[in-house]
Specification:
The chain is 64% helix and 5% strand. Strands 1-2 form a two-stranded antiparallel sheet. A hairpin with a 2-residue loop joins strand 1 and strand 2.
Length: 177
């Protein structure tokens, strides 16, 4: 692998790796460490000829693994107040993602991969190493919690399959794939 290929991968997928690490660890310094470790590992991997989706999937899986390593070793997370504004979407979307950041990790990470990165439930399941039905269940629970946190109706029969729109981000329940 050349430095140019590494630079291209960092440009194309660096934000994804960083946002995922920040979502998972909720600590800027740890997210920066994960970012650096993942791309260093990618460079050392020395693979050439991967298409963009294969590269992105490898980087996300490596970031998740590295986050798990850090979480086990450090056993701590810091409050999200330390997150710089550039890591958060602007305006109302920032408020929505602030609420997402308060979800438990097992719900927060699938929400980030599904809505933030655009993976379907099968792809999210593969990245997390869990069944797709588990991902869909976690997404459903996350949507219900978000509705409650955002002041939505608590009566499930009255709830639509849609979350509030925030600055161009319209989260909705996708039907099972």
């Amino acid at each position: 692998m050349t430095e140019r290929e590494l630079s291209n991968a960092m440009t194309a997928y660096g934000d994804t790796v960083y946002r995922l690490a920040l979502c998972r660890l909720q600590c800027v310094e740890d997210a920066e460490d994960v970012y650096q470790d993942v791309f260093l590992g990618f460079f050392r991997q020395g693979v050439t000829g991967w298409d963009g989706e294969h590269t992105k999937a490898w980087l996300i899986r490596a970031a998740l693994n590295r986050c798990a390593d850090l979480g086990r070793r450090r056993g701590r997370t810091l409050p999200l107040e330390a997150v710089p504004l550039q890591a958060q979407p602007a305006n109302d979307a920032a408020e929505l993602w602030d609420v997402v950041a308060r979800l438990p990790e097992d719900l927060r990470v699938p929400v980030h991969l599904y809505y933030g990165e655009g993976y379907d439930s099968g792809e999210t399941a593969a990245l997390l190493g869990i069944p797709a039905s588990t991902v869909r269940g976690r997404l459903r629970r996350a949507r219900l919690l978000l509705r409650n946190l955002l002041g939505g109706s608590e009566d499930e029969s009255e709830q639509s399959e849609q979350l509030p729109e925030a600055d161009g981000i319209h989260l909705h329940a996708r039907r099972a794939e």
